[in-house]
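Re: Re: token formats

Sure, here are both.
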Amino acid sequence: MTVFESKQTINKPIETVYSFLADFNNHSQLMPDNISDWSSSKDEAAFAIKNMARLALKISNRIENQSIIIVPAQEVPFNVEMRWVVSTLGTDSTEAILTISAELNMMMKMMASGPLKKLTDHQTSQLKKILA
């Protein structure tokens, strides 16, 4: 299992951060520029990655003010899970951690590691910017 992780401290209460992340409709704001054709509901999202593939994801588990687990909603070339974990650092401060775990063979690891690490960093920094 290959793991990519990024964390940010956000100057908002945990309820605000969790509420934003718990609704997939908000995740379009966290995506990089190479994402197009976004469609979503509270629980699922589908989108295209430019010059690559179309993906569908769903929120498989929510623990209020703690974590959100996102998994593929359809067949994918490798097993992958995205997990947002939020924890309170004080009244108006929350730590948000995005972890992407993927079962990648050596070839896929060489191709996907850079983009997946970039994605985790991009999403956490966008979250901080949006909720600032």
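Second one below.
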Amino acid sequence: MEINKISFRVRYSETDQMGVVYHGNYAQYLEMGRVEWLRNLGHSYKEMELNGVILPVISLQIKYKKSALYDDLITVETKLKKRPSVKIEFDFVIYNENKEILAEATTVLVFMDAKTKKPIKCPDYLLEKINV
């Protein structure tokens, strides 16, 4: 399965007084990874929402290994865990420029109809582009 990568520098506002990234910011980093994964397929979250599909997170697990620090260049690797159905699952590895693993994570999201808030299957236009 293809791995999508996004790299960026840790901003000062994401850290505490010791220059360490606040643990809650990792969820945002994972979201950035998912958004870019989808964009790499040729689609966007905005496009999905305009088509009446939303993707709430129903599960998030993070294992913290080492602290990310202010101004670190970090990379989020996003990998689709398996072919989606009603749910879509991702595995992530976040590491610094020295290739030290900072965190490993898994998220599960569910495809939902924006109006009815009921689960639906993964849209065909996404399934057609996923090589799993």
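The chain has a mean pLDDT of 95. Residues 3-127 form a domain with the Thiol Ester Dehydrase; Chain A fold (CATH 3.10.129.10).
- S.
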